[in-house]
């Protein structure tokens, strides 16, 4: 079924640049990617597997099933992926299980931070050389990990740096989970400061990385929220993303134990996949990147709109809200003189009034070569007022990370930066983040 959805997306009625992958790429069961470019499939990892599959994998290696549970506790509860630390396993078994089920997947190439160290972007290199980025944001009341689901993106939205780079390939489940794992481990180690004078991370008990310690410096904390708003279109990599959601939200030792309600999957509006997600019996939040209330403009801003129109996307979103009881987040980048007209605010309000929706207005973040800029603040304020006047809940998104190109739509990761530190595998003990901003 997921395959059917992928092929649907990859063969739209009206071909859209970046989506045109030959059908056989999909039918052959390989990862969709740039035609003619070969990618090494990421090695199998513990985080690709559910508990039963882990036991089977351990049995294949001639080990008793409970070894899978031991490994799972180390990885998902203690946030350890170094076999040397797993002293409850016999030494020989440690190396064998570690080699088979905990291969390195992503190597941290570079860390950039801003907002006093509370926002940090990591550039990761996968085993085949593909680059992805993730962003960790520590707020007084929550810690949000923004993860990538694909290397690049095939959706071709002209205002988004990731979209302009095109799709390289889908990430595996474990490559997605690894990004959250790295954030959870940095939080547990107290490696991420809090904002001066504010309290630290969220205090919910249980789950990995919990140790309280709020205070001026933040102290250890835990990742409380995960948003699929990094590189890629999560619903175009449905199976891996869904398994990653389960791994992120299942209680330890099956997964990282983050609440489903604190996970957001953001989409350009792939209607069949939204409908499939609605049937999964999850309570994750859905975000729809709408950006225009009318098909004429949305066809340009979000090219997949040529396949699934505004009305169809919103119908699917309302069905998702009905199935999950969760308010849908409507993302709207405010682009000066393009989509910020008063009549468009009114049109949007007409579509959303009375619905289980919340609008997030995102001041457009600058991307290289883009001719567009953010809306004038007074124009944006009027847009917001017009929505609010019709009773539509609306907020302006806090855009963290613009100085480090870590904000919405700025994740490109297409080139190795000049100051890259090659081949440094992410680990807490060996973490030497480069300080300062990328200016
Ligand atoms: N492909 C998914 C996930 C990416 S989320 C999606 O589009 O929803 C990234 C969010 O940032 C999306 O809402 C996207 O439309 C928005 N965005 C992209 N480029 C932006 C930019 N330059 N400024 C502000 N928001 C942007």
Which properties best describe this structure?
disordered N terminus; binds S-adenosyl-L-homocysteine; 11-stranded mixed β-sheet; TIM Barrel; two-stranded antiparallel sheet; 16% strand; 439 residues; disordered C terminus; 13 strands; alpha/beta
Question: What does this molecule look like?
Answer:
This protein is an alpha/beta fold and 439 residues long. It has a single domain, classed as TIM Barrel (Alpha-Beta Barrel). The protein contains 13 helices and 13 strands. It has helices at 2-10, 23-27, 51-60, 66-77, 91-101, 161-165, 173-188, 238-249, 271-278, 295-301, 310-324, 342-352, 377-389; strands at 106-114, 119-126, 131-138, 143-146, 150-152, 167-170, 225-228, 263-267, 285-289, 328-334, 357-363, 394-396, 424-425. Helix 3 (51-60) packs across helix 4 and helix 7 runs parallel beside helix 8. It is globular. The protein binds S-adenosyl-L-homocysteine. S-adenosyl-L-homocysteine binds at residues 153, 155, 157, 159-160, 229, 233, 266-268, 289, 331, 333, 362, 364-365, 367, 408-409.
Taking Cα atoms only, what radius of gyration do you get, to the nearest Å? 21 Å
**What's the β-strand tally?**
13
Strand portion = 15-25%
Whole-number mean pLDDT: 83
Sheet with most strands: strand arrangement: 12-11-10-9-8-7-4-3-2-1-13
What string, H for helix and E for strand, traces the elements in order?
HHHHHEEEEEHEHEHEHEHHEHEHEE
The number of distinct structural domains comes to 1
In this entry the ligands are: S-adenosyl-L-homocysteine
Given helix and strand content, the structural type is: alpha/beta
Contiguous helical run count: 13
Low-pLDDT residue intervals, each spanning 5 or more residues? 1-36, 198-216, 415-439
Report the top-level CATH class.
Alpha Beta
**Major sheet description:** 11 strands, mixed
At CATH level 2, the architecture is Alpha-Beta Barrel
CATH superfamily: Aldolase class I
Give the termini separation. 46 Å
Global outline: globular
Classify the fold: give the CATH topology. TIM Barrel
Helical fraction equals 25-40%
